[in-house]
Write the structure tokens for this entry.
Amino acid sequence: MPWPENPRYFGKATPRAEAPAKVTGRAKFTTDVALPGMLFGAVLRAPWPAARVRAIELAKARSAPGIKAAVAVQDGAFDVRFYGQELAAVAGVSRQAVLDALPLIAVDAEPRPFVVDEIAAMQPDSAPVVAGKANLGEGQARTNGDVDTAFAASAAVVEGVYRTQVELHHCLEPHGQAVAWEGGELTAWVSTQGVFALRDGFARALGVPQSNVRVICEHMGGGFGAKSSLGAEGALCAKLAQAAGAPVKLILTRFEEALAVGNRPSSWQKIKMGADAAGNLTAFQLESFGTAGFGNGVNNGAGSGSAAFPAPYIYKFAASRVKQGSVAINAGQACAMRAPGHPIASAGIEAALDDLAAKLRLDPLELRLKNDPSETRRREYALGAEKFGWKEKYRAPGSSPGPVKVGIGCAGAAWNSGMSRNTQAEVQVTTDGGVEVRVGTQDLGTGSRTVIEVIAAEMFGLAPEQIAVRVGDTRFPPSGTSGGSQTTSSIAPAVYDACENALTELKKLSGLDDPRGANWKNACAKIGGTPLQVRGRWREGLAAGGGAINQGGVQFAEVEVDTETGFVKVRKILVVQDCGAVVNRLTCESQINGGVIMGLGYALYEQRIMDRASGVVLNPNFETYKLPGPADIPAIEIVLLEQPERGVIGVGEPCTVPTASAIANAVANAIGARVPDLPLTPDRVLAALGLVPATERGGARAEIDAAFRAVAQLPVHAGATEAFA
Amino acid sequence: MNAFGYVTARTPAAAIEAVRDDGRFLAGGQDLLGELKESLVSPKTLVNIKSLPETAEVRREGATWSIGANVTLAMIAAHIELHRAFPALAEAAAEVGSPQIRNVATIGGNLAQHSRCWYYRHRDVRCRKKGGSTCFARGGESKYHSLFTGSMCLSPCVSNLAIAFAAGDAQVVVQRGRRTERLTIAELYADAWRTAAAHNSLRADDLILRVELPVTTRRSTYLQVAEKGDFDWALVSCAAAAKVDGTRVSDVRLVLGAVAPVPWQVAEAGAFLEGKEITRETADRAAEIVLRGARPLGDNAYKLPIAKALMRRALLKLVAPA
């Protein structure tokens, strides 16, 4: 799979293929789907955090004005495990008719005791989230070497409890679908990260053959892991459409997005870390727990394997001991979220590393260069430090003058880039020279269309705008779910292969040695009566074949902290990202911008807040679930570390991993004190500065100690996850 | 949201007549629409008051600035003469919401807005402001709540404009039945201090017509701290006004927002500063007087250092060379 010596488009900056459609509003998102006779659907959700539902009576709702169908999530009795859990759904001729009918559904239920915070859930007297089961699920453990001896021999040891919050995906486009049945066949327009995964999901949920299901996703406004499989609302929508005998569109509201469509688990990380006097890491110990929602244990579909996360992350220790648990609470379940586990892992260990550097009076960058086992990352740190001016900017923690203090920090990311090797692509060349490339992938907004366009244009010697790209339809050649940052490395080789096959055919049909570029029109005119259509499949070459590729990235942050008000402003983020062979610079950088902004939200603003007394999510909107706005976004400088020999690899996830850690370390460097909990809100900054009496961190001291003791005593599950470097 | 009727009122009397049938006044709608969508309220009628005559103007009338109830926050933020005369007001307006919100949100609506407490705003929580028997913020999530209160409700006054107007000794002109009444800012919110269920002292059919701000030689400023750099509610806000002679001040007003159900003002702090030079020390002393008796909960004690910093900065800014 050789690549042209002097590419015209590959690795250059081609504007996003669908940009004009998006900025003019022509792009059709799921919410824009309008079918003849289409009904509106909406979901009735549990107003209790825990209850036993005995029966759901739909008759009154069904006979309400304008209502065409009503379905319950299941027949018979079942348990409600979180506020907002789906109970039933209604479809009708208008949104108002549906909203008026929802309260007419009679739910016979008995509310039960509940618990919505991790520490309370781990106390012996807590209400059980699942009857008869302990809230703290079975744990996982990894031990390597003699930890106690290694700590005893260390010149410096730091210990701390670091905490990360539950973060919500909050894709700007909420979850939703429109479903139409024709006989036994179902067509669904869905905002999804995997049209084929959704096809399987609908087939299973509705009991129809997969071949009877078509899923379409033309454009979508983000997924971040939360749109990888069929949700309860998707199955309900299909059932409503079946029952009503009419198409139904069901789009969730922002309120619902905060309750029931996934999240990033929280973490409490008790870390002990040691080094010798020269700063060589010696020993690491971690006890952690967090909540992934109402499910616990190591296999609850949290995407990161419960609330566990890779540990020790990135760094190598002569001896380490890790014990991780996850605790169930009455809240919506976690699912994969952009780089599952990694930002959590990074937040703990990178903070501990800087605290250790402070104790050793060492520059934290030096400590990383000395201890990071990845050659790529060490190269990136050196490159980034130069661009960032680390040496000139670095001051000892807390030594910046004045009430508004400046600080800098850095952190790294590890990632394994995989790919979906079963991806296929199809190229159709018409006699007038037109080119259509079809792949059953989906463009999450990351630029997949443009990637396909760039490759076909390069291969055929045409301009990108001469290539028509079709994605997001199960009628196109199959590809995998867009997750794990593997879409580009899956589709690029398949498109390349299809284009190469097309050129071979075209040479034969046209008799031209080189049908590309200037010869294209002539060659195509000789195709004959029917268009040329060829397939291609993923093969090794453009993307490396030998298993997952170890990837690294590093980020530097510069912040200012108002030590009188606790307000943190990020001035600058510098990213050095391992990119392998870049297909399209513009969309690659755009993904990195998004990853940094998401990391900024994780660092400073975002957290789901639940109320202990009522069990509801208190901030189910963008007023109080705070996202970065334009005024908050710093200058973002991106350096792409190109290593084309490594082939096409992903960037979507690794680029969000170290942002929050770098910011938190910059804040610690500015004020000379660690703010141990994300997000770094003014109240917590002021507490770290000793200006506020220490508040409870999600529980009384004794309860938190008891929670960590319970984790230490957990029985251990066999298949423990690996450390990650 | 429930179905409702809609009428446009052309006179204050007609507006008041129409609102008496279980109605709500509608101007910019930025507060009301949220309440409707969360089903916190289900009025029978929305009375559009945007067409009331002479309510969308800012006028200088002798010794008074008259600011109509329908004047938008964007108009205030961009009003050059008003900005020169009393900067605190424009600065307060500029910090409200986003440009989209400021383009439609009105002075009247900002002053009359209801609680932003996340318990009050939650569709499935029945707190004391909604007639329930529990203040969930007590023992609950109270980081945005009050340091002072006279009732069982901890929801703070978050109207930026109220804080600035209080520093300017403004009066709110209200059509109350057939009478036109003038309320001080303190009077406008007095009921919220005393009564858990009250957002302010306005009755359902009280119509704000305009705000009268005395023309003054006092300097003024408004500062706030929020969690985000823009488009966020103040954790604490502060307006200050004073006559300035060198670094010496007199006739001082020092007002805090988001710390009590009312704009928080302690007369003694002004008395303490009367005739004094503003230094870090005198400013901090005044701030301590304002914050005396604060009763922080578990989550909101951090508002004290922020309030203190804001008051010091505001006072120092007043005496800084122009």
